[in-house]
Amino acid sequence: MKKYLALLALSVSLTSVATAQQDPKAGKILDQMSAKYQAMKAFKATFTQTLENDAAKVKENISGDITVSGQRFRLKISGQEVINNGQTMWTYMKAENEVNISDYEPEDQEISPSQIYTLYKKGYKYAYVQEAKEGGEMVDVIELSPEDRNNPVYKVRLKVGKTDKAVKSWQMFKKNGNRYTYKISKFQPNVPVDATTFNFDKTKYKGVKVIDLR
């Protein structure tokens, strides 16, 4: 569960409203990027997450994939599945063959799997940094800074493809010294999904222990 909470954990609070002057160049790129993803009915991304902490001499890599449709998602990472249908959230742990069920309350969630595409719209300042090359492709580098000083994240750095306006990678910098890097290795737009995609079917998990926390 901790790894899930770390995944895409870009903000604890989205309550403050951005009032500062924003960088118009960065804003235009972010708007184009956001529109691209929000226009999709669903998408699936395969990614690698790298956690680094120089002081603690830590470097860990884990891989996973996530399918997203609006606020619904199905995440598979490191022996876990997290499924959200917009109302209920299931967290399945393969090693324990156990699933925890809880109500999905967006305002109480530390993360949102699609938050990376709309994060800049509320409570963040953003600025254009530079052009760079990522995997042989030119990208625009943009930095986001939370206005809430109590946010454990002090900076998010996005790399957006100059041609296709797709997010290629992003980094999250936390005050505790942890640095998370997420790289998309495969992206599938408009993947087919249905009601079963975002619901937990316990008949497919023989002998699973169900813990209902609602």
TrEMBL record:
Classification via InterPro entries: LolA/LolB/LppX, OM_lipoprot_carrier_LolA-like
Record-linked Gene3D superfamilies: Lipoprotein localisation LolA/LolB/LppX
Position of the signal peptide: 1-20
Family matches, as CDD domains: LolA
Keyword Hydrolase appears in the UniProt entry: no
Keyword annotations from UniProtKB, A to Z: Signal
Protein name: Outer membrane lipoprotein carrier protein LolA
